Automatic annotation (TrEMBL):
Keywords: Cytoplasm, Nucleotidyltransferase, Transferase
Pathway per the UniProt entry: Protein modification; protein glycosylation
Subunit structure of this chain's protein: Homodimer.
Gene: CRPPA
Family of this protein: Belongs to the IspD/TarI cytidylyltransferase family. IspD subfamily.
Catalytic activities: D-ribose 5-phosphate + CTP + H(+) = CDP-D-ribose + diphosphate; D-ribulose 5-phosphate + CTP + H(+) = CDP-D-ribulose + diphosphate; D-ribitol 5-phosphate + CTP + H(+) = CDP-L-ribitol + diphosphate
GO BP: any one term: protein O-linked glycosylation via mannose
Biological source species: Sarcophilus harrisii (Tasmanian devil)
Official protein name in the record: D-ribitol-5-phosphate cytidylyltransferase
Lineage, top ranks: Eukaryota, Metazoa, Chordata, Craniata, Vertebrata
Length: 444
């Protein structure tokens, strides 16, 4: 195994892979991410896996997608020695977990082999527990979802090897030496092999150990190695369109658009109580119903529970429901969590903070005081690229009337771009419901 630079440093910093060294965890799953390429086809001085997308390195999105999956116990990333420090800094900055760094090889297959060696019990430099199944995934395929990972892992357990495939976009032809068409493949009968792929660890490690220099140098297909050296026929699993590999510069632009689209479809409702579960569930149902058409996902976070996990999951849209607090403590806590998670500096976070006030007991001057405080708070947090909207709802019997006429908050969640301008105008589009929104303002 080549020098596992940085891995020890990370382990000491508490960022290394978990598990007891050398003890194989029955049924465990690990992942190897080759990230040692130079991105020639994309061009430019920075290897594509480190190119910033919305201010964050591409590889950080891929790591995030994998670390979200709790059953992946270790993630081994193969990086060149010159990029080792930068990679360690990325792991630290974005708080990636269960990550171990090893040195990349001169080809993709060599990088993968180095990653596998770190997981192989019989290898002198292995430190991590040997998994039953290993996922191999390119560092430059950032949009891998848990269901695809689960499908390839399940198929690998049954068949020894499995990989995601997609229909071909273009027809594949064989040119002759003189540049003429020799053969054209029937597109319907062929598929594009994508990633992730998964293998019984024993199968793929044995395959790499036997691999010829020619395969190591020119091979592009891990499934083929399992077939050639271990006679293991991989099961092919349909993958999603987002599995494509960032290869050319235009792919970075596509990636940015997809991220923005995903961001706009995630809302987290943070409540400062879980006492009235029924009420919160009602609110969640209402939001879901209003937003269904856009395919938006609403996560509920009573009492700020699991908030850090949600933040790290790249949520940029929050609704703080304040039932117990009338100050800015809950949004402040949320913003502190967001600041430490280092969200993209190029994409604003939106926080809608909703306060329920008893209109019978609040005077006009108190009301105005609240409004001014919200404005000041909005101004303050705008400097951190946070759009803060304060909503005061004066509604004495809110809890009892919720199922009849709960005030609609839908207007705030229709974010499609990085700007909210004009969205507040939607209040007027819904005159029947707007009567419950006594004051709705706050960002500047
Ligand atoms: N010596 C290498 C070469 C490639 N890779 C990784 O393998 C994945 C897929 O390879 P590819 O898209 O070909 O990446 P590059 O080799 O960087 O791109 P190019 O061929 O355009 O130079 C990438 O995550 C890349 O970093 C690697 O770990 N070690
Ligand atoms: O899709 C793949 C395997 O099926 C690989 O991502 C692909 O082969 C990598 O090849 P290259 O490094 O030449 O782009």
């Amino acid at each position: 195994m080549e020098r596992a630079g940085g891995a020890r440093g990370l382990a000491e910093a508490g960022l290394g892979g978990g598990g007891e060294s050398g003890v194989p965890a029955a049924g465990a799953v690990a992942a190897v991410l080759p990230a040692g390429g130079c991105g020639e086809r994309l061009g430019g001085p920075t290897p594509k896996q480190f190119c910033p997308v919305l201010g964050r390195p591409l590889i950080s999105y891929t790591l995030q997608a994998l670390q979200r999956v709790s059953w992946i116990k270790d993630i081994v990333v193969a990086v060149t020695s010159e990029n080792m420090d930068m990679m360690a800094a990325i792991v630290q900055r974005y708080r990636h977990q269960r990550v171990t760094l090893v040195e990349a090889g001169t080809t993709r297959h060599r990088s993968i082999f180095n990653g596998l060696k770190a997981l192989a019990g019989d290898h002198p430099h292995s430190r991590l527990p040997t998994p039953t199944v290993v996922i191999i995934h390119d560092a430059v395929r950032p949009f891998v979802e848990e269901d695809v990972l689960a499908s390839v892992v399940a198929a690998a357990r049954d068949h020894g090897a499995a990989g995601a495939i997609r229909p071909l976009v273009s027809t594949v032809i064989t040119p002759s030496a003189d540049g003429c068409l020799e053969q054209s493949l029937d597109r319907a009968k062929h598929r594009a092999s994508e990633m992730p792929q998964a293998f019984l660890f024993d199968v793929i490690y044995r395959a790499y150990c036997q691999c010829s220099d020619h395969d190591m140098e020119f091979g592009t297909e891990c499934l083929h190695l399992a077939l050639k050296y271990c006679h293991t026929k991989a099961k092919l699993v349909d993958g999603s369109p987002d599995l494509w590999k960032v290869t050319y510069k235009r792919d970075l632009y596509a990636m940015e658009s997809i991220i923005k689209d995903k961001i706009s479809q995630q809302i987290c409702v943070v409540a400062d109580t879980e006492e009235d579960a029924e009420c919160i569930a009602f609110l969640q149902g209402l939001l879901k119903k209003e937003l269904e058409v856009q395919g938006t996902s609403v996560t509920l976070c009573p009492n700020g529970q699991d908030l850090q996990k949600i933040i790290l999951g790249d949520c940029y849209n929050f609704v703080c429901i304040n039932m117990k607090n009338s100050d800015f403590r809950p949004p402040r806590q949320l913003l502190a969590g967001l600041a430490s998670a280092a969200p993209s500096p190029f994409y604003p976070v939106a926080v809608v903070s909703v306060y329920f006030l008893d209109s019978q007991n609040v005077s006009l001057s108190e009301k105005m005081k609240e409004v001014m405080e919200m404005k000041d708070f909005a101004k303050e947090v705008k400097k951190q690229n946070v759009f803060f909207y304060g909503v005061l709802i004066h509604f004495p019997q809110f809890l009892t009337q919720k199922d009849k006429t709960f005030p609609s908050l839908w207007i705030f969640f229709t974010r499609k771009s990085s700007s909210f301008s004009g969205k507040l105008g939607s209040i007027d589009d819904r005159p029947k419901r707007s009567s419950y929104l006594d004051s709705a303002l706050g960002f500047c």
